[in-house]
């Protein structure tokens, strides 16, 4: 394999950072690398809020579920799906713009995720560590008010960037055979059972035997209750009507 593939396969989430700051030009190059990601019809339906205020970082850490590394990383970013800029631009060019379509929501969300992952790969190639913060969707309205996000813009996730102060193991992934299918969908419970064994061993080793669980059991909190049921109403209020 080549260095890029090796880098991608070595990804870990970093939650402890040194006090070293990312140089400004390096930071800007990461963002430029992000902008080179694929984007639907060149819409570029994303905006990034670089949160530098310690007070705002502390508030976001609280709203995201007490994730203190939001405060301690070198740079903290909030990636936003942004349909305001492209629809406003089309309107100024004379289009009779229709807003609130489900496809617009999907385009903006996908564009944002692709852009962010480019930033992540670029950051890790520079020896930086990252941690996505999906917890900002715990309180998206409060986050939006804090960052003064306008209608037709919503915060998708946060991202911690900085120099790692820990060296965690790479977390195992499902076997390729479980997720790569040919011509049609197929169920493969046997490979999941095997992966559950792998993850039980991994969690036990990582925690010195204090965590006895597997992949399937870890999924329970995501599906045995309504997860973030406020999101649909929030998105509609932001102008993503899902028409």
TrEMBL record:
It comes from the Bacteria. Residues 9-163 form the Nitroreductase domain. InterPro entries: Flavin_OxRdtase_Frp, Nitroreductase, Nitroreductase-like. This is Nitroreductase. Keywords: Flavoprotein, FMN, NADP, Oxidoreductase. GO terms for molecular function: oxidoreductase activity. Belongs to the flavin oxidoreductase frp family. CDD domains: NfsA-like. The keyword Oxidoreductase applies.
